[in-house]
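BUG: 3D viewer hangs when loading the predicted structure for this chain

Environment: internal workstation, default settings.
Expected: structure renders.
Actual: progress bar stalls at 90%.

Input used:
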Amino acid sequence: MHRVRQSLPYFREFGWEAVVITVKEEFVEAYSLDPLLLKTIPEDIVVHRVSAFEAQKTRKVGLGSLSMRSFFQMRKKGDELLSSQSFDLVFFSTTAFHVMALGPRWKRKFKVPFILDIQDPWRSDFYLDKPKSERPPKFLISYNIDKFLERRTVPYADGIISVSEGYCDTFIERYPGMTREQMEVITFGASDHDFQIARQHIHYSDKVSLPTDKINIVYIGRGGHDMQFALHIIFGAIQKGLQENPALFAKLHCWFIGTSYAPAGQGARTILPVAQSFGVGEMVTEIPDRIPYFETLYLLQQANLLLVPGSTDTAYTASKIYPYLLAEKPLLAVFYQGSSVVKVLHDTGVGVAVIFDHESRAASSYVDTCYAALCNLILSQTVPSKPDQAVMDQFMARTKTRQLVDFFNRITNS
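Structure tokens produced before the viewer hung:
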């Protein structure tokens, strides 16, 4: 959603008119609602909102996914628009992957090319060799549906946009005939405008109150077992700090917020148990429920120190890194050496990165490095200097939209 939302103000500037199909909000089982997001969308953008089957009814037969519940309504609206108007391109930018399967139908029926924006893995093999306790709910059912639909969709796409080079490599390996020339890696952009809205409208959080007598370390984003390697490094460093510098580290409290995609009140904690295994559970609060986007930005600005743990999925990239950069707070990132996040931090000069290679070294071998980084960040407590504007411009939403449009033009020969 954020890719399109941040691009809509700039498409016309670069020669493209956008028409959006989305789902009416009353049919969305939202983790949280954030009407302020509407303030970021230009008023003259044409938006078609479709209905969906009600989740309460479809869950009786095991279907809760919004992309499944709205599939036929999306198809009907797309058919209606494509048959009555002239379009140059269909752009699927969503993690509700099932609707992407409409691409081949519309290409075949209306002769319109389509591009897929792969922000997360559609069919992910990551959990295939993991024990059942570490897999997401209904993993095998979802996996086989995703495998089937991806195979019937991705090879027919005219273009693939991805946030990760690894996703491109996977498709080329998985589907003979696909080439790197069909693909473009474009990470998410940063938006100063979002922070301006947050400053104007958000002055407190309903769900989280950071204590003033603590040094609050904040991470907002998903959890998961694929982050345990990074968490072992982080909690190992905190454990070491309590042993070697208890007066300082006893002041810390770590907040992990919005760690589950499950509906409110149903999410499992995947981070707190790791902290407890290191004996630092009392210093950690994990809130699985998601919070509104602008409340997220508010909390990032209220934190004393920001933390971003990375994944052992080598293709994973944290698109959320840009709000962390713009928050202008001390930042610690613990990431796989091949992640694009490492390059972003290097290029902008913002934050400290603990870079790991989980394939060749144990998590414990990085604890001392992480401990030293934490000590420096906690003791300095200084606001990082802003990166050079020319450097930061390459990561902003306008620049990323220009990259999108350049790819659109290439695929459509415009």
